[in-house]
Write the structure tokens for this entry.
Amino acid sequence: MTDTVGDICRTLEKIADPALAEAWDNVGLLAGDALAKTDKLLLTIDLTEPVVRQARRLGCGMVMAYHPPILKPITRITARQSPALWRATSAGISIYSMHTALDAAPGGTNDVLARACGLRDPQPLTPAERSDFAKVVVFLPEADLEKVSQAAFDAGAGHIGNYSHCSFRGAGLGTFQGESGARPTIGRVGKLEEVPEYRLEVVASRGRLAEIIAAIRRAHSYEVPAIDIYPLELYPASTGMGRIGLLDRPVSLPALVARLKKTFGLRNLLVADSGRRRLARLACGAGSCGSMLSAAAAARAEAFVTGELRHHDALLAKRLGVTAICLGHWTSERKTLAVLARRIARAQPGLKCIVSTADRQPLAIV
């Protein structure tokens, strides 16, 4: 069975809800047709011309480009100004970006980086504070329970952390009386009815509420279903930017550097040495994360592993007593693609997920 671009988008949204992205970011389906069909998805950090050529050669109808090729408003897409994007859209290839939504999501970019660094039980360095989730409550007869539940799940409800199909179901007694003009599914107009009903509760992203409620109404047998929406105040505890945790045992800086070089296949790292002899509590942040240094110091991190830092952020790290280690921006993010490919494949077995071999580190130390 061939998936649509929209089907793939919904899977990506379940893995990393777009509501988790930073306010300045641009995530989601950036170009393409949600109704187009494809059986191949190419995963890349950057959308470059070599990546687009690989997508065309392999017959991929969609590319997940971690870095959004459209970040700031643009006025035109031409072969000269935006060659990769122009070639992709000209070939009918849809483009989706996850970026900071995947960074903040449980099991996303920063969790992959934390595991690669050897952290035990990593937690968000800056937990997500805003809430873009709600609880949907609907009352229904037992005969509708499975059908309505599945409709809500298919529309994107019921995801908590790494779990799907989450719901609460409780039995009770509902009352109603149909007035003039009503066409009740159960009972007669003008008579007070008492009906055994179930209360079904599911969590949902606020951005998908309209679609979820519409799906519930289509599956529900009542003329006017009773549906309540309750705003939720917190994301799951494992959601947020950066990660912090303990190494299995304290190590020296040379030992940590050697481990990171081996894990990431690097010959060289950039290090701002704070002078600490033993490192046990480590923070990390994929990409460019100088803004997290103060949070790392406040969380008593002894070392901070990231992609890149500005000159003044490196000076700040040393002043705060935090040893900073830079892997390279692309390198700090790249490992998440293989993990993401496996997660997508489990959710959509008919979709072939390919990690781009044309995606390359743009900078090299020579």
Q: What stands out?
A: The mean pLDDT is 93. The longest strand covers residues 192-205. The CA atoms of residues 158 and 164 lie 6 Å apart. The domain at 133-231 is CATH 3.30.70.120 (Alpha-Beta Plaits).
